[in-house]
Specification:
Strand content: under 5%
Distance between the termini: 18 Å
Helix content: over 70%
Transmembrane segments: 7-27, 39-61, 73-95, 107-128, 149-170, 176-199
Protein name: Fused MFS/spermidine synthase
Shape: elongated
Keywords: Membrane, Transmembrane, Transmembrane helix
Radius of gyration: 18 Å
Order of helices and strands: HHHHHHH
Number of helices: 7
InterPro entries: MFS_trans_sf
Structural class: mainly alpha
């Protein structure tokens, strides 16, 4: 991987962290009209995000062992983008259905969080281990690369949390923000795929 490609991977990892925490934070706003905003509602949201990320880490690590490429990396972003869109389309009917069928808000919020966020967050969780695989070219530096990658990703998560909570929610409605996250993820995925395609074509031209 070239220096420019490595910088792109770090940037994409940063953006994925930003989007993950932004979506998690907005989860509270989505569930609040039906289940409230008490501590067990946030407990449900955080539990679902942590579990789905953990599955995503496993899947991303496994996928990265099979001919890892920047194109496949970009596809993860594209799939994540597609999986985020249903949150904006179906959150209301899903919330209404669960609210009317489950009386206990603890279990209702847990089921609602799972229905809305589990699959997109699993896909998003695949990004970090796949990023490490693309960045590591020397096994002796794998720990350093992983540490740097998780620093960048977590920094993105921190900024995503504070910018979403301090600014985005004051200026836009929830669906607009989530749609913007989906569009961002999809655009980044396309950028990765195009760059990899151009690089491959350039190599073939010089061969």
């Amino acid at each position: 991987m070239s220096i420019k490609t490595n910088a792109l991977i770090y940037f994409l990892a940063f953006c994925s962290g930003f989007c993950i925490m932004g979506i998690e934070l907005l989860g509270g706003r989505i569930l609040a009209p039906f289940f409230g905003s008490s501590v067990h509602i946030w407990g449900s949201i955080i539990t679902v995000f942590m579990l789905s990320l953990s599955f995503g880490y496993l899947l991303g690590g496994k996928l990265s062992t099979k001919n890892a490429s920047l194109t496949k990396y970009g596809l993860i972003f594209l799939i994540a983008s597609i999986m985020v869109v249903p949150i904006t389309l179906f959150s209301q009917p899903i919330m209404e259905f669960i609210f009317t069928h489950i009386e206990d808000s603890r279990y209702g919020s847990l089921l609602a969080s799972t229905a809305l966020f589990f699959i997109p967050t699993v896909i998003l969780g695949m990004i970090s281990p796949y990023s490490v695989r693309l960045l590591v070219t020397d096994s002796d530096k794998s720990g350093q690369v992983a540490g740097r990658l998780y620093f960048v990703s977590t920094l993105g998560s921190a900024l995503g949390t504070i910018i979403t909570s301090f600014y985005f929610v004051l200026a836009f409605d929830v669906n607009t923000i989530i749609s913007a996250f989906a569009l961002t993820l999809g655009s980044l995925g396309l950028v990765a795929i195009v760059i990899n395609t151009l690089a491959n074509n350039k190599e073939l031209a010089h061969a």
